[in-house]
Here is the input.
Amino acid sequence: MPPVAEHTAADPADPAAGGELLPLDVEEWLSWLATEKGRARSTLVAYRRDARRWWAWLADRGHTDLAAVGEADFEAWIADLRRAGLAPATVARAVVAARSLHRFLAGEGRTDADPGAGVDTPRVPAGLPKALAEEEVAALLAAVPGDDPVARRDRAVLEVLYGTGIRISELVGLRLGDVDLESALLRAFGKGSKERVVPIGRHAGDALAAWLGPGGRPALVPDRWARRGDAEAVFLNRRGGRLTRQGAWLVVKRWGSEAGLADRLSPHVLRHSCATHMLDHGADLRAVQEMLGHASVSTTQVYTKVSTERLFAAYRQAHPRARVGHEPS
Here is the structure.
């Protein structure tokens, strides 16, 4: 059995690098996730954090050889994570990362066995997306005043997030060549760099046209681009660089606060709202799955429960005989 490699400093050029010392095998696993599996930067950062947590737990117990890890170690670690009060989703993600690491090591022949193969990923209670009411979305989209470049950008950000249901990472990754206003389509690159084509509605298209036209994006173009690739970015910050995830998140939170939705609004809530409202108005489940880029229709089916509950709530509130006798089941 090949020995597990010694510690190495994280590569500062690696987008998932955090500067901490981890075994070389862990670093090579992270590189494999980036280059071979095409994992997003945010996923790599999360996996590095989880790998650091797993390695620290092992080291505290004198387990400095990844090849000697057994299934009992996994089970004890999961129990400790739960006792620490971590959210079920956090525990599940950490276990998925550790299992992926050991599956990689076994697949590469660096360990004799995969100790995580028989370990079940902790179940995460299914949570229902908290979609906004259509009137609340309308208030949010009407909350941005003015016609200056930043106002045009912010309106386009909100309209595109709600109108297309794309993820915030997909939004800030948009390039000029990904947007076809004439055909009312945009190209999004989702998880695992999977490409899909998404329709642009009339309001989102109008907002994008205003942002990309004179008085919008061109007004924020710098004399010299600071970074390669910024010139092709659809959304720019005030300094003329590509708008970041954090920057787009702040745009959403700022105008959510103005519309009285500060505690309930995030970019992902707009994505939830897009899917829920489409299903409310009779959209086909498979079409919504394709539009949102869900790998499995079971993910999209969560929204059907939301739409059904909204229907029953409206029935109970509006029908004169809804509170008499039994309710719909």
Notes: Residues 297-318 form the longest helix (22 residues). The mean pLDDT is 85. The first strand starts at residue 7 and ends at 9.
